[in-house]
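Fresh eyes needed here. Have a critical look at this protein's tokenised backbone.
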Amino acid sequence: GRSIARGIAARYLRAEHVEELLVYPVTTEATEHPGGYRAALEEFYEEAAGRLAAHLDAGRTVAVLAEGDPFFYGSYQHMHKRLAHRYETEVVPGVTSFAAASARLGRPLVEGEEVLTVLPGTLPEEELAARLAATDSAVVMKLGRTFPKVRRALESAGRLDEARYVERATMDGERTAPLADVDAGDVPYFSVAVLPSRVAAGRPEPVAGRGEVVVVGTGPAGPLWLTPQSRGALAAADDLVGYATYIDRVPERPGQSRHASDNRVESERAEFALQLAARGRRVAVVSGGDPGVFAMATAVLEIASRPEYADVPVRVLPGVTAANAAAARAGAPLGHDYAVFSLSDRLKPWEVVAERLRAAAGADLVLALYNPGSGSRTWQVGAARDVLLEHRAPGTPVVVARDVGGAGERVRIVRLADLDPAEVDMRTILLVGSSRTRVVRRGDGEEIVWT
């Protein structure tokens, strides 16, 4: 028949071999089975396993032929789950289709610290795009009718120009091509999309007119807090621009330039990024947390509003902000209305800060207080506490969260009256409860906060 696996093994078959043809009842998700596609397959696997079991019970040795590797998107795994616990079983590893595709392309898949992601083309388009943007290298299996969706996902992820197409690797009719050039109407199931190693290929020279600035938030700490979209933007950038502490969170990549600077030169940093983009560079401006919350997005957009940068594309990607991270660690103190403040008086007089605190406290809002103190600015925490005590009970819960997600993470719940400025620095965020905020001690002794 049309079995590729049997065709490969045909030269080794003997006349005395008994062959069982396991023919799928459906090849797409369209079926008249009353239980639908999955039920049709489950029924087939049960019936096929029963046929194999009959041979095994008769004392015969059974070899199941599978293309590629039996445990890599293989049909055999469904037989294995049904039979391996009843009969002695040996699984012989095989060469996966993506390994063959990489060899035929003559391009390494991953090198050094790169990460390889293998995806089925049957995933939803948005999930495909997010995962393709977030990884270094990728293989997308199960093309065929999914090809148009996979192509759109690669384009959305900004990876279409890198993608390569391999059809029937190592078989008759093998074909390789840039994926962008492939006709969607001529793509069989036995084809894969490949994003090869960027290290091996090197970085292409920037093309004039294609530059952009992407403002990225790294979250409050390490890589677990970085969104897939942001990870993809950082990987695709020619240049990283940002405060040294945040730049250091991003893994180094060959061919990528890193421009670290002091935390007090936001406007200069923003203009430098826009100048690079105007010359055709893909620039990621790196912030901590969410770039739109007391971070670099405002500075970049302010400078980008000048006429000379009107044609430079600018995107802002969301990140996990410290308030949300701290709230999750403590429970759900931000479960209802809340206000966000910076206690720093660098950009506005303290009188303005105090007036806004009084207004929010009088409205019984939960407060998230950023930038509460630093080595040269220690008095604002005490002053803010005194302002809030004009409207809040002394026992109001306050979450004191330092370095959330980092090695020095410490999250405590204290009474507002007991808030000690000495325990607060620039790596701390304060969440001040409202009259509706509660602290509960659970069975394990842990305290949680909710509003």
Remarks:
- The radius of gyration is 29 Å.
- Residues 322-450 form a domain with the Methyltransferase, Cobalt-precorrin-4 Transmethylase; Domain 2 fold (CATH 3.30.950.10).
- The mean pLDDT is 90.
- The chain has four domains: 4-83, 97-201, 212-316, 322-450.
